[in-house]
Amino acid sequence: MNRLVALFLISILTLNMLFVAPLPLKAQQTPRGPWIDEAVFFTEVDPDKAVEMILKNEAQIYFDDVTYPHILKLVKERGLSYAFSYGLYYELTFNPVGPEFPATGKLNPFSNARIREAMNYIIDRSYIAGEILGGLAVPRYTALTPSFPDYARYADVMYEIESWYKYNLDKGRAMIFEEMRKMGAEYRNGKWYYKDEPVVVKFLIRIEDARKSIGDYVSDQLEKLGFTVERRYGRSGELSPLWIRGDPAKGEWHVYTGGWITTLVVRDEADNFGYFYTKLGRPEPLWQAYENDPEFYSIAQKLYYRNYKSAEERDELMSKALRLSIKESQRVWLVHLTSLWVSRPEVSIAYDLAGGYSGSWLWPWTLRYKDRVGGQVKILTPDLLVEPWNPIAGTNWIFDQSIVRATGETAALPDPYTGLFWPHRVEKAEVYVKEELPVRKTLDWVTLIKVGDITVPKDAWYKWDTSQQKIVTVGEALGDSVKALAKVVVHYGKDLFSGKYKWHDGSPFSIADIIFNFIITHERADPASPIYDKAYVPDYSSYMETFKGFKILSKDPLVIEYYTDTWYGDAEWIAEVAADDFWPYYSQGPGAWHTLAVGYLAEADRKLAFSADKAKELKIDWMNYIAGPSLDILRSKLQEAINSRFVPFQEVLGKYLTVDDALKRYQNLMSWYNSKGHFWVGNGPFYLEKVDVIAKQLVIKAYREHIDTADKWLKFAEPMIAEVSLKPVGTIIQTQPVTVTLNINVHGKPYSVGDILYVKYLLVHPGGKLVGYAEAVEDGLYEIRLGPDITGALEEGVAELITITVSKLVGIPTIAKTAFTVKSLIGYVGEQVAGVKGEIGGLGARVDSIESKIEKMSSQVKGLREDVGTLSTVVYVAVGISLVSLIVAMVTVFIGRRPRT
Amino acid sequence: MHIRKSSVVRIARYVSIRAGMVAVAVVVAVYLTIIVANIGGYVDEIIVSEIRFNVYESIRINPAYKGYSPEEVKKIAEERIESEIKRLGLDQHFMIRSFNYLYDALTLNLGRAMRIFSSSGSNRVWDIIGERLPTTVLLFTTANVLIFLCELFIGLYLSRVYGSRVDKLAVSLAPLSSMPGWFYGIFLILIFASWLGALPYGGLVDAPPPKEPLSYALSVLKHMVLPLLSWAIAYIPIGVYRMRTFFLMFSMEDYVDYARARGVPSRIIERRYILRPVLPPIITDFVLVLISSWMGAIVTESVFNWPGVGTLMVGAIAINDAPVVIGVVTIFAYLLGISVIVLDIIYAVVDPRIRVGE
Known about the structure:
The complex is a heterodimer of chains A (901) and B (358).
Chain A: H1 2-20, H2 23-27, E1 38-43, H3 47-55, E2 61-62, H4 69-77, E3 81-94, H5 113-122, H6 125-132, E4 137-139, H7 149-153, H8 155-164, H9 169-182, E5 186-188, E6 191-194, E7 197-198, E8 200-206, H10 211-224, E9 228-234, H11 236-243, E10 255-261, H12 272-277, H13 285-288, H14 294-304, H15 311-328, E11 331-343, E12 347-348, H16 363-366, E13 368-369, E14 376-381, H17 398-407, E15 412-414, E16 421-423, E17 426-434, E18 446-451, E19 461-465, E20 470-473, H18 474-478, E21 486-492, H19 511-523, H20 537-546, E22 547-554, E23 559-564, H21 571-580, E24 585-586, E25 589-590, H22 593-604, E26 608-609, H23 612-618, E27 621-622, H24 630-644, H25 650-653, H26 659-676, E28 686-692, E29 697-702, E30 723-726, E31 730-733, E32 738-746, E33 749-750, E34 756-765, E35 768-773, E36 775-778, E37 781-786, H27 788-793, E38 797-807, E39 814-823, H28 825-895
Helix pairs in contact in A: 5-9, 14-15, 22-24, 24-26
Chain B: H1 2-37, H2 42-60, H3 70-87, H4 94-106, H5 125-160, H6 165-173, H7 181-195, H8 213-251, H9 254-262, H10 266-293, H11 298-303, H12 309-318, H13 322-350
């Protein structure tokens, strides 16, 4: 019996070792789908409370940007993780009409370009960024966003402008006084007068944010210069009828505290000059009142229309536009806000340089606990479920869209730090562009080929004809010799149709999902269609202006050809347009053909509508795939589809799927609805598990059958910002070559040369500045080699070397500086000789000094010996006394042995 | 029989006249709300400006429109602006719309919101309010009923022990009500959520929401504790003081003294001579409190992140969604009007001193 028990115990132990012991290891393996198991979204609009909840671990992330300096301080003190993004930026918009307003006859100082330019000097941007915004902003001087690619590209010009236009009240005052007098104004008793009336500046100041304090600060500065400032405070809605719709000639305002936003990393900001400074920008009266210097207007126009033939030409135009735009200063740029994004320190997540955590397309792939795989992350967001969810024209709110993105995926994904696209469901792409287009490529998945001419094949698909239920080819629609500016050959992943790549309801991904997208793109704009939506037509029309054709070269693996007149400066962007145009991720989310077919039936029956506009027009509900009254209708339409064995657009889709395929998909969807209670079926790393509309909560769970493992996008979890250390130079001697070394690391390791776009340097010396590029030696090591011709051109005095390192992996350039002295060769040699002479002269003195020191030391040694002698005597005496004491004590003990009573 | 019939006629006539007056008041109040909520039509101007700005901005920041000529951009933008203006119904003159709003309100159709959607995705004002009303009723009606009952019974008790230590203590606590409920709410959150971690910071239910209905209900109750407590601290002391004074005044009426002198037992005095005459004002108070609780409490809901009608109103006002504001006010106006009429009838029933038309 005992043996049996022993055997049983041994078996249990063995089984434990076999099955239980490997579990922790297995749990740490890279899972399929996302790193975490579940994300719970719930709302909190108050950032203070949200951060407090994160501190208490009631939530792990806040999906909204925070712009309060006290929270930044708290977050730093309490050790929370944080990231910065560039979103809002503030400026001063000037009314340019004048010198007198036609309606009132009053003087408008800001009709004078030099006064507007002078405003750059009287505003201390560092004060606004540091004091008013508590460090959550960086000064901004031009139309280019700090840290975005164009800023890095023209960093030398930016440096020059930022140095030249830094705060200088006296200089600004002198310019303004000179111009005001020229305009006929008089300065009396500290105030400006025009035709004996005070010159009043009507300042429209927004009050919702820091612009109130900024407006007050600028008003104070203007009052210091003698203007009478009339401050009119108001919210956006109250002030916009005045500045954006009102006629500036009426003289109702002079200055407005403008605010703009960037929601994604913009790689090409060249059109900003046309938009913000010229009539090209908008048709509103304010823009139409802009009058420009002809040279600047011509440059702004060329940049606006991308009317340049090479990157070099663009560089030249941009440099000129930057300098000329600040001379005109229809706007004076103030600061670009650096918004704070807060999370628990044990959580890691990729953030977008423009959109923060929630704006990043990679957040679902990178969100994880640093020390473990799996787990639940609670995410706070200011609002949820703001509008109905449907993939075609559903909610566009960022709070909802950041979750929608986790449930679907696009063929290519934007790099959150550079804005460049990386392939996701694509293997590679060949981009053909006309040779005169200044297109460049950065990443290896794209091959850029410049060609003379691109002809669209006649048999390429052009559009869908609803009436005839057929695809119209390019030849049928446009004729024989249709040309395009770009052609892209996209090679999708080989496992796309292997059956392993599935929608969340278990339906395998198929080519029908892509073709359905092609058809419905055209169907919604065709008046013959039951889902025609006239609100969609303007967007469709502009799309068709540039779309030239689509052709399937191979069905499995899928290879397509895409023809377009849309082009960007980056070949990766053109490739993305082609790869994603008919990929089943629609404007507002992922959509399998069968889920959209159900919506199609509901809209065709006028029960629901995909878009808000059509819903309003028909007085029906806006289609919602996740909750509300839409669900019953969608369910009945799904049943109808099953009963009628419905295959949408059967004439075409029927070639790619059978009725049984369709029924199988509908059954999958019905099971999904019965299990989850909604119709939201995606293919992303998370699926929608639960929606609580009353509590405003939403739970998404890891889709563990995803084709990719969680580590696919791991390298984007942290921005690869270059850490640059510049070896101090000390002195540069004219005409003598010198090499300056730069160590470029990332997270403590050498930065790969292949990932560095360029290292530009600026050498600012008393005689001007030199610009050049550092050379790569090896990973993490660059050298700036200044030959005799360069050092010979430097003027004597204190100089500064500034390096600008731009990576392919992150849009934020790293700027490093070192100061040095430029000396002439003669002067330097003279100094060296004088130095040597001085040293020789000083040598004798030093020898004398050493002798005296030796003498002093020997006397000290002598004194020390005497001290040691004295000390020895003391020791001998002490030992003697001790011995005597010992003997006396022993005798005493011997005599007095009897105990005390 | 003849007398009873004439009484019925008299009451019916009185009620009809009152109903007519109340109906006129409701119509005027609703139309005034329509005018105020739209700032006399200026809101149209504001919304159109915002639409224009947002449409052009959306085109500017969309890389797909890079390189488009200003004419092309203008064409696309203007079409979008027109479509949006039409969608929001702003293509119709405000005065015409104001009567449509009034008609919708009076027929209790309430129409569709301009921008706000219910979390379930409907923009019917009824659906939007209907989604928020249960949570508001749950929290604030519970709070008001509890507070009312506490005030009533504690006030009555204190009036009996007038001058005692308990009475003095209650009187000395009355100044607590100088601060609103949300003010105490902030402190309670700091103590019980932030410091002790014993109760939630806010919201309706734990995240993620429990799957079992009972756990869900318990979680909701847990989330109600702090808001209820904050209101109890803020509103019970003054309510108790008010009730106590009220009962004291009634207990000093001549007819009460006379009853005491006649040797009527104190329990009967309390029930018949004190409580019955005070019923009309107490019922009025109770009904009005009940109705006002359905409007929610804007700041308290915000502090406790409670998804109720109060925060809905704030949101609607902030983005100028007039139909929602009008809808909430209309429901309130109707409830108030009906209550006034019903109360008139109840007065006659509960208070023997009240007679109609005599």
